[in-house]
């Protein structure tokens, strides 16, 4: 193992595996046992002694087992981050930020410089990634180690080529559970938030994209991973279009600074949600047919070659919806995709490459992926599995390109559920703020977080 593979990392090794490590490596207790209190020092989980029990009064962590077994028979090995980066990458991006984007980008850079914790709340399609470039350029030029983490592997796969194109001479590590490539010590890392559990005080600048998304939002171990991966005096930036109430409470307490941008980069407003009541859509689908209004809309897509995403609440519904479409409109070419689909990454790439016209999917594609010029249809939009934030994010897939800044966002539902009404209200509110900004205000940086 190269010494650099332990820089800012914490790897779980047995004494035999650790025998050849450099002399300056630090050994950290993997599982801390204090009476009946047992805590994993890698993921922070407090363990149930019965569930964590091994023979001979030994224990292991079942919470982060997918990263390799951490137990009282192993230790975590670590070398403090030396920032050993002889090269200083430069930004080769030639695009132009809008006035509003430049203001937010300046705030981001300032918070990197002062090592603050910061929330960038910007509507879907506002250009959050591009707003990071000035701050990342500042950090990379000073030899700081940076990471951009997301709960979703699809987001990481979309971010990696964009950041590589913006920083052509930078070596970028892409880390996720499905990547077979060996680990490389790089100044800039793009990874899933689960991968942060392998780091310890590594990053001077840590950016968490889609901070309100599953599984990050509901997983205290991933918050533990973030606080462990960033240096004690490092900068932390959260990115989202739909902040949780907890994030906004942190803003009100003064624990987080905030920047807010309610307008997309092309200065157009968010497409509004159109709702059609279709109480028995699933019964119709199960008979192998399409509801009439849906069939007519898809027939128009077949004729115009308009690309689209079709969302359904449950994985079990994907095959039936696809079969009904193929039966009614065989010329339409699309695929189904869901979170545990073994071909998920390849299918999403086919949609990116425009080799298929549509995807039928679940909330796994609600955020973080961009397919320019698409429309969106949601079947069963009133289902409890679609939260208000999810519906807003789904609507945000539409109108993201300058060439087609509008499009159809169509919800078919049995009722005007509260989640749908809240999503419509949130988009109207953002559009009202965006219109006011576009028409009267040259810049925007901070808001009242109420």
TrEMBL record:
SUPFAM superfamilies: P-loop containing nucleoside triphosphate hydrolases. Residues 109-261 form the Helicase ATP-binding domain. Keywords: ATP-binding, DNA-binding, Helicase, Hydrolase, Nucleotide-binding. The keyword ATP-binding applies. It holds the Pfam family Helicase_C. Residues 293-450 form the Helicase C-terminal domain. GO terms for biological process: DNA recombination; DNA replication initiation; double-strand break repair. One of its GO terms (molecular function) is DNA binding. Transmembrane segments: none annotated. It comes from the Bacteria. This is DNA/RNA helicase. It comes from Lactiplantibacillus garii.
């Amino acid at each position: 193992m190269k010494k650099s593979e332990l820089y800012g990392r914490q790897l779980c090794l047995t004494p035999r595996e650790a025998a050849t490590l450099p002399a300056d490596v630090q050994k950290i207790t993997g599982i801390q046992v204090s009476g009946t209190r047992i805590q994993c020092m890698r993921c922070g989980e407090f363990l149930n002694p019965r569930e964590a029990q091994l023979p001979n009064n030994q224990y292991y962590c079942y919470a982060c087992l997918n990263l390799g077994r951490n137990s009282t028979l192993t230790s975590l090995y670590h070398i403090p981050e030396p920032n050993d980066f002889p090269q200083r990458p430069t930004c080769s991006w030639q695009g132009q930020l809008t006035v509003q984007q430049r203001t937010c980008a300046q705030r981001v850079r300032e918070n990197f410089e002062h090592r603050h914790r910061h929330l960038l709340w910007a509507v879907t399609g506002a250009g959050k990634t591009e707003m990071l470039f000035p701050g990342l350029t500042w950090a990379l030029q000073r030899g700081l180690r940076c990471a951009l983490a997301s709960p979703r592997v699809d987001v990481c796969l979309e971010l990696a080529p964009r950041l590589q194109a913006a920083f052509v001479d930078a070596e970028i590590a892409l880390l996720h559970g499905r990547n077979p490539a060996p680990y490389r010590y790089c100044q800039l890392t793009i990874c899933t938030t689960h991968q942060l559990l392998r780091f310890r005080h590594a990053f001077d600048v840590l950016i968490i994209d889609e901070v309100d998304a599953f599984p990050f939002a509901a997983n205290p171990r991933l918050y533990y991973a973030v606080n462990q991966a960033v240096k004690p005096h490092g900068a932390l930036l959260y990115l989202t279009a739909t902040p949780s109430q907890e994030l906004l409470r942190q803003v009100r307490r003064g624990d987080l600074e905030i920047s807010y941008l309610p307008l997309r980069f092309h200065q157009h407003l968010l497409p509004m949600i159109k709702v059609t009541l279709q109480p028995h859509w699933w019964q119709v689908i199960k008979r192998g047919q399409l509801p009439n209004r849906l069939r007519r809309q898809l027939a128009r897509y077949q004729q115009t070659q308009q690309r689209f995403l079709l969302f359904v609440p449950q994985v079990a519904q994907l095959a039936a919806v696809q079969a009904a479409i193929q039966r009614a409109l065989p010329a339409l070419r699309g695929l189904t995709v869901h979170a545990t689909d073994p071909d998920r990454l390849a299918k999403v790439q086919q949609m990116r490459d425009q080799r298929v016209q549509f995807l039928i999917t679940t909330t796994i594609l609600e955020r973080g992926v961009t397919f320019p010029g698409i429309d969106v249809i949601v079947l069963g939009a009133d289902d409890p599995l679609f939260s208000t934030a999810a519906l807003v994010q789904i609507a945000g897939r539409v109108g993201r390109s300058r060439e087609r800044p509008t499009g159809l966002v169509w919800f078919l539902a049995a009722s005007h559920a509260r989640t749908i009404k809240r999503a419509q209200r949130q988009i109207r509110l953002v559009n009202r703020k965006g219109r006011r900004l576009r028409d009267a205000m040259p810049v925007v940086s901070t808001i009242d977080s109420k």
